Please model this.
Amino acid sequence: MGVSVSLNDPVDNTTATTSTTSTTGTESSSDLQSQFLTLLVAQLQNQDPTNPMDNAELTTQLAQISTLSGIENLNTTLGSISTQLNTSQSLQASTLVGHGVMIDGTDILVGSDSSTTPFGLQLDNAASDVTVTIKDASGNVVRTVDLGAQTAGVHTYSWDGTDDTGTAVAEGSYTFSLAATSSSGASTDATALKYALVYGVSTTDGVSSLNLGLAGNVTLDKVQQII
Model:
């Protein structure tokens, strides 16, 4: 922010030009205040006695300097708070190592013992009925599960690893889709959630992200639920 000073009578052009030009850079309020006082002294020394400097103008200019100083102090304080928040976020993220989280996704993994990773859903609004359709890697439907009515929010479930006939499915990767309807019978949005294990935490430019192995890296705001 530049501070303008009006002189009633001309002063030394070299001094005035140098001081005014230097304020165009990225300077602190203390620099501007020093330059302002230099110009003020020059103005007082060269003002017309019959037309003295307006006190209101002087007050306005001083208020501008004071406002700039306050903004600089506020920026410094906010910067310190931001650093503390980033440190706190990193510490919070580190406590998730070894824990499972639910993030956006449609994958379900089935182990050799028919154990499965959890799956979930997020509803912005309550649904009168939610149906889950599980498919194998070839796109064949192996299981359809009716979850019934669900409230708004995040819900997590486990699949027993069997198909519609009750037979255990083969080990491997499966996907699922959701169909949700409201009380009026119209379809409603439902976000599919998959399970991932947190292996580590990394921080880049003050932002912490979770290392989820094959599931990639995600920031904390992408975690819908911690298991």
